[in-house]
Specification:
By secondary structure, the chain is mostly helical. The chain contains 4 helices and no strands.
Length: 90
């Protein structure tokens, strides 16, 4: 494929190169300027409809995930959080 001298020098008068439609919709999700539209969590981030005990557990799990930089936790990790809250099995 040959390139014109103008294109090589950056002085091209040609319109922008054709870009496939699926690449035109690309959004850089790592941009610090953008606020995410939706928080992608294992459990929903809204705790308003929960009982007081369930809200306490949800906040403890959210805290655990934030401290350990985890999006999802295992059942063992969840059990650990529950035990740290003081719950035990008789």
């Amino acid at each position: 494929m040959q390139t014109s001298p103008n294109a090589a020098a950056g002085n091209s008068t040609d319109p922008a190169p054709l870009v496939p439609a699926n690449l035109k919709r690309f959004v850089d999700r790592r941009s610090a300027d953008e606020t995410p539209v939706r928080d992608r969590r294992q459990f929903g981030s809204s705790h308003q409809n929960l009982s007081e005990d369930a809200r306490e557990l949800a906040l403890a799990i959210d805290g655990y995930k934030a401290r350990h930089r985890r999006r999802y936790i295992t059942f063992e990790e969840m059990l650990s959080v529950i035990q740290q809250l003081g719950y035990s099995r008789d």
